[in-house]
Protein: TLP18.3, Psb32 and MOLO-1 founding protein of phosphatase
Organism: Pontibacter chinhatensis
Amino acid sequence: MPRDVITPADEKIITAAIQEAEQKTSGEIRVHVESNCDKDVLDRATEIFAELHMHQTEQRNGVLFYIALEDHQFAVLGDAGINATVHDHFWEDITAEVIKHFKQQKYAEGLACGIRMAGQQLQAHFPYDRHTDTNELSDDVSFGE
């Protein structure tokens, strides 16, 4: 079960990283954790992206970190707005950094690091505007089976 691996303390670390990143950008970051992924990891991440309504942000600048723990699958997925602005290896760089931590079973630390990396790019392309920005999506970690 994902909640056996991602503890409440881990959730706090992850949520704090999301909140820290989102204080500097209009972008939205979510984390979804489940046990298994029975299809291509990017296809499953795309399904979760839609289920979490991440495509409905005003600037199409949502980023999803998807993890299937038992199957050792990970993907980071960005919406059209962010994909149009980041460099070609942006997602691969984040994935490599996160997986480096995952291999040491440091899931919260890996996710927090990846979230900060995404936040830096989001800040560069989608800076926070205190007059117009709202938190469009939950910062909480979502869990599947």
